[in-house]
Write a structure and sequence with these properties.
alpha+beta
Length: 494
């Protein structure tokens, strides 16, 4: 039957035409016995790996560059922040204020306050106005008269309606006053004290929230339920005439240099001495205490120390990113990077420049004790700085914070580096574009590998079919040879 089936066909078949049908019903390698899937996987991997590795290595490098520039940007921002404290003459002109007795008064001084000493007496402290009812009540629930209370605090007033069986108790009046929407600043409370006979009595207390003579409390009554708005009974018990003044509404008062009187509605004097705020604590009538205003050298020392530390942090960051270690043969992430070198060069040059228009004595950072060390960091000579500040504070301030000063020049350069169209942003955009290009190359690689795998699969499937057919043909030929051999052997035996 086998001979009949192949009698009218060529041993070769059209593999191309049979690939799909055979692949659908046989496993790859069935005809040849080869592990075609493994072969395809290995060849595809071998084709992909070199490009994959190149792209991966480049991507890691770019991500490292982005991280390096992020570190540099952070260090630049920290350095810029440290400059802010030195950016204006006002900031550098900080003043110190010393009270000879802080139990009498304390003081703070703003930049620009006149340097010198002033004698201060606290003649009087500010106080709240306080009224206490002379009428005694057995308790908070005692009923009082009904009508209208008109309370005034200085020039402002408000009405409180007291209605029988609603709020005409001592507690009700207290709450009505405190809850009034237009109350300008009067607090009502109930004072309960001994009556001297073993019992207690309650009184209404009215207190101004704010101190000062402009916060005086007055009380008027209208429509008292007992028919008399001016007597000492019913609601009229709370008229000013029927209230005891326990604390006057008073302004605080200072005597400056034995001649000048100043007042304040509270115990804070913001305008007595220009640029100085004095807070009265207790009175010292007849005794002078001293207020001393001086230059706050500790402030500028602190700010310059922060400046030096921030620059050194920036310097360390730049060195780490751009230096090459000859001994270890290790390079920083930004070694040879033009942008990083440009930033470093411009900053260091500015730090050593002579400032035009500055005093001839103080025209560089080195002249006030800030010098560059061998490793590129800054050092601060505290003695030299102190001497410069004592010698001519204004010249030092001009060197640092003048219109052409070091701080402004540095800040302008840093801003140009950090702005949205600056060198850092430009480099970051370049890196992002390179990452995008890598993504596109990976997509192209994936497409190419898909095509490559398809070609391999077609070729090896065709090979599988061909080998299978060759094996089939070989089997047929072998069968025919066996038949012929058997025929020959049979004839010989006969």
């Amino acid at each position: 039957m086998l001979g009949v089936e192949h009698g009218n066909q060529s041993p070769r078949v059209n593999a191309e035409s049979e690939v799909l049908s055979m692949a659908s019903i046989t496993a790859a390698g069935t005809g040849s016995g080869l592990d075609i899937e493994k072969i395809i996987e290995t060849l595809t991997k071998a084709e992909r790996t070199p490009m994959d590795e190149r792209l991966g290595t480049r991507e890691i490098q770019i991500q490292a560059d982005i991280s390096a520039y992020g570190s540099l940007k952070g260090a630049l921002k920290d350095f810029q922040a440290a400059l802010s404290g030195l950016s204006s003459l006002t900031n550098l002109a900080a003043r110190s204020s010393v009270s000879s007795d802080e139990s009498v008064f304390t003081a703070t001084a703003a930049s620009g306050a006149a340097v010198g000493s002033t004698n201060v007496q606290v003649v009087q402290l500010a106080s709240n106005h306080k009224l206490v009812s002379t009428a005694d009540f057995t308790g908070a629930s005692d009923q009082v008269g009904a009508g209208t209370l008109t309370l005034s605090l200085g020039a402002e007033s408000f009405d409180v309606d007291i209605v029988a069986a609603q709020n005409n108790t001592l507690a009700g009046i207290r709450d009505a006053i405190n809850d009034a929407q237009d109350n300008p600043g009067i607090t009502a409370s109930i004072l309960t004290v001994s009556d001297g006979l073993g019992g207690t009595v309650s009184k209404l207390v009215l207190t101004s929230d704010e101190t000062g003579e402009d916060n005086n409390i007055t009380v008027a009554v209208a429509n008292d339920s007992d028919g008399n708005d001016l007597d000492n009974s019913g609601l009229s018990a709370f008229l000013n005439a029927n209230m005891s003044e326990k604390s006057q509404a008073r302004n605080a008062e200072l005597l400056i240099d034995d001649d000048y009187t100043v007042t304040s509605s509270n115990n804070v004097f913001a305008d007595a001495i220009e640029g100085v705020t004095i807070t009265a604590v207790s009175t010292n009538v007849g005794t002078n205490e001293t207020l001393t205003i001086g230059l706050d050298k500790s402030e500028i020392n602190t700010r310059l120390t922060e400046f030096v530390e921030a620059f050194n942090t920036l310097s360390d960051t730049l060195n780490f990113l751009t230096d090459y270690d000859i001994e270890t043969q290790e390079a920083g992430l930004l070694t040879g990077d033009f942008a990083a070198r440009t930033i470093e060069t411009q900053i260091r040059r500015t730090m050593s420049d002579v400032i035009e228009g500055a005093s001839s004595s103080y025209s560089t950072l080195a002249s006030i004790g800030i010098t560059t060390q061998r490793d590129g960091s800054l050092g601060l000579d505290a003695n030299k700085l102190s001497s410069a500040l004592n010698s001519n504070f204004d010249d030092v301030a001009e060197l640092l914070a003048g219109d052409q000063g070091i701080v402004k020049t540095l800040d302008d350069k840093l801003e140009s580096f950090l702005r949205s169209d600056g060198i850092l942003a430009s480099r970051n955009n370049t890196f992002l574009a390179q990452l995008k290009d890598i993504d596109e190359q990976r997509e192209q690689l994936n497409l190419r590998m898909e095509s490559f795998e398809q070609r391999l699969r077609l070729q090896y499937t065709n090979l599988d079919i061909l080998v299978g057919q060759l094996q089939s043909t070989g089997d047929f030929v072998s069968q025919q040879l066996d038949i012929i051999k058997a025929g020959i052997t049979g004839k010989k035996s006969n």
